[in-house]
Amino acid sequence: MILTLVFVILMPFFLGVGLYLKSSMLLGQESLWDLLFSSEWKPLSGKFGFLSFIISSTWVTLLALLIAGPICLLTAIHLTQYARSYVLRLMHPVIDILAGIPSVIYGVWGILVIVPFISRYLAPVFGVEVSGYSILAGAVVLAVMIIPFILNILIEVFNTIPDELSEASLSLGASKWQTVKRVLVKKAFPGIVSAFGLGLSRAFGETIAVLMVVGNVAKIPEGVFQPGYPLPALIANNYGEMLSIPMYDSALMLAAFVLFAVVLFFNLISRLTIIRLEKHQ
């Protein structure tokens, strides 16, 4: 049992070292700074700039979190504080079903519904003519995918708050909404930060559904209606076909290493934020 525990603890380290070693060929020829902050992606000419992929990933992830965040928080508050208990019991299997749907199904839904909606109705409102395959389409699909994940955590967070806190606030004359806003949300804040941090990590690494609707154009997007090319899509689209080109293979492993480092960073920041908030409560 101890050996398995040690293996699980060291697994992120093994993953990181493996990806670094596989990408060392490219790192030996170009500096990490040039690779991360150059947008010139011409593999056949030996140009491997990841900036456009990193910015696309950031656009899609943050926009998805902006869409999903308020929905998840308000839904969790309603289900745990206002709705009858049978509503929460009814919602649990629905949330589990949404969480269990394969990402390719969300991708197909995005192609059939979200992409045409953006192309025919939403973009023309802003005077833009686009195909619909865009950062916004990727963000909407991704937001729907991470809602069950974040919502499940938030419901658990609010359910762990003792009822005595609400009862004490209400007995002092506060309204229900004032109690939720000033007592429960404050008490649950570390858990809310944790839920959004983990949701951010999950969203940043999501692959199949996003690559199906985001357009996959290797340039820096200048707006939400333009296509993008996130890091996971780059790896999924090219790995396997380009293994015969050692430098290209090394570049894709570096993309995976960057993705791994970013997700690890978000997780650590979330954990440190929770620890600091808990100390000050």
Brief overview:
The chain is mainly alpha-helical.
The portion of residues assigned to helices is over 70%
**How are the strands of the biggest sheet laid out side by side?**
1-2
What is the β-strand count?
Answer: 2
Estimate the mean pLDDT confidence: 86
How many separate helices? 11
Query: What radius of gyration results from the CA coordinates?
Result: 22 Å
Order of helices and strands: HHEEHHHHHHHHH
Q: How much of the sequence is in beta strands? A: under 5%
Q: How can the largest sheet be summarized? A: 2 strands, antiparallel
**Molecular shape:** globular
Uncertain segments are none
Distance between the termini: 36 Å
Q: What structural class do you assign from the helix and strand content?
A: mainly alpha
Any chance you could write out the topology, listing elements then pairs?
Layout: H1 2-27, H2 32-36, E1 41-42, E2 47-48, H3 51-82, H4 85-100, H5 103-125, H6 135-159, H7 163-171, H8 176-204, H9 208-213, H10 231-238, H11 246-280
Antiparallel strand pairs: 1-2
Helix pairs in contact: 1-11, 3-6, 3-8, 4-6, 5-6, 6-8, 7-8, 8-11, 10-11
